[in-house]
Amino acid sequence: MPVLACLVLIWLISSCANLIVMTWFTYHNIDVIERYLSGCKGIAATRELWKGGFRGRQMRLSIIFATMYMPGVMYRRGDITKIAHFNIPLQLRRKIWAIYIWLFVNAGVLAAVYYAVKIAR
């Protein structure tokens, strides 16, 4: 059981660190990234809908990640221009991908910890 407690603690610290990094990133870079995507009506609509609060900035980053992750779908829906995701500088794209990969890994670890707890009972 102590190993499981250590894994949970590591996951908790990693998740909190991920949220802190994501919050810092959005407060410093979201407006810059949106300027690169100024011709995209989906990005502009999300900015108008969610504004600039904590949750709003997270949602705006999520739509930007969706633009990078599935540009074809976003283009077919009419949310972005055909090559909008290439307007974001490579350095910022890499940072966004790193944040979301970290988030997905945390979610996977949480699922593994859940099953470990379930099996341990």
Short précis:
82% of the residues lie in helices and 0% in strands.
Descriptive overview:
Helix 1 crosses helix 3 (54-69) and helix 2 runs antiparallel to helix 3 (54-69). The model has no long low-confidence stretch (mean pLDDT 91). It contains five helices and no strands. The longest helix has 35 residues, at 2-36. It has 121 residues and is mostly helical. It has one domain (2-120).
Please describe the structure with a list of short key phrases separated by commas or semicolons.
121 residues, mainly alpha, 5 helices, 82% helix
- Rg over CA atoms, rounded to whole Å, is 17 Å
Question: What is the helix/strand order?
Answer: HHHHH
**Quaternary structure classification:** single chain
Average pLDDT: 91
Q: What does the overall shape look like?
A: elongated
Biggest sheet features? none
Distance between the termini: 10 Å
Helical run tally: 5
Secondary structure: elements and pairs:
Blueprint: H1 2-36, H2 41-50, H3 54-69, H4 71-77, H5 90-120
Helix pairs in contact: 1-3, 1-5, 2-3, 3-4
